Amino acid sequence: MLVISLLLNIAVLIPVVTVLLLSTRRGIDTRERFPWGARTPARDILLAIYIAILTASIALLAVVAAAGPAVAVDAAAVSLFAVQIVYKVLTAMTVRDALRNPVVLSNLGIAAVHGVTVATLVPALLG
To answer: Is the distance from CB of 79 to CB of 71 less than 8 angstroms?
Structure first.
């Protein structure tokens, strides 16, 4: 499950980060086409968070590929996924019309996958 969750992060975040970066750099108005809305400081902060999560996911996947699973890698991954689970579930409570928002719906699906991953990793860490 660890590799699945890391690959899911990468697969989702590469296109999202690309769209946000291109629309930011080219001044494209995304209000009509994308659920992130127009460029604002809040959206730019979200982009920075997405880039950080993408970078951490790539780094963790590289370590797993090079050295295999290890307790330190599992602990780092659980920390990353726990933060993601919290913020993704909170979007359902903080975004207006949350269950109609595609970002919120995808957040909840990703949080569910990461929840399964954390549930499979934590027993060995506490073991």
So the answer is: no
Please give the Cα distance from 75 to 106 (Å, whole number). 25
How far apart are alpha carbons 43 and 19 in whole angstroms?
12
CA distances from 15 to 8, 49, 108 (A): 12, 15, 18
Helix (H) / strand (E) element for 71: namely helix 71-94
Considering the entire predicted model, what is its pTM? 0.88
pLDDT digits (tens, 9 = 90+) for 59-84: 999 999 998 889 999 999 999 999 99
Domain residue extents for the chain: 2-126
CB-CB contact of 6 with 64 (8 Å): yes
Query: Which residue in 90, 100, 84, 86 sits closest to 35, CA to CA?
Result: 100
